[in-house]
Design a protein that fits this description.
about 80 residues, mainly alpha, single chain
């Protein structure tokens, strides 16, 4: 797979999946900020993981829904998409 998840796409998923409006440039500027700061809980992140698995037709690592920050989540997802692991 050669797709890469961006902060813009993550913000869109947070809006559609959890009803949260997040500025993607803010997340990009503070990749270590916690999802809690944006109001995203573990259930919301689980919904994003499921949406991405459906989109790419590939399971994400079992700990994807345990990521605490946008930067950590994007790194995990993008590494998985690149390696197919």
């Amino acid at each position: 797979m050669n797709a890469q998840l961006t902060y813009e796409e993550l913000a869109t998923l947070m809006k559609s999946g959890a009803g949260l409006t997040v500025d993607p440039s803010e997340m990009a500027g503070r990749p270590g900020s916690s999802f809690d700061e944006y109001g995203l809980d573990s259930l919301g992140l689980l919904g994003i993981v499921a949406a991405l698995e459906n989109r790419y037709g590939h399971p994400l690592p079992v700990d994807a829904d345990r990521c605490k920050t946008p930067g950590e989540f994007l790194a995990l997802v993008n590494n998985t998409l690149v390696t197919g692991a």
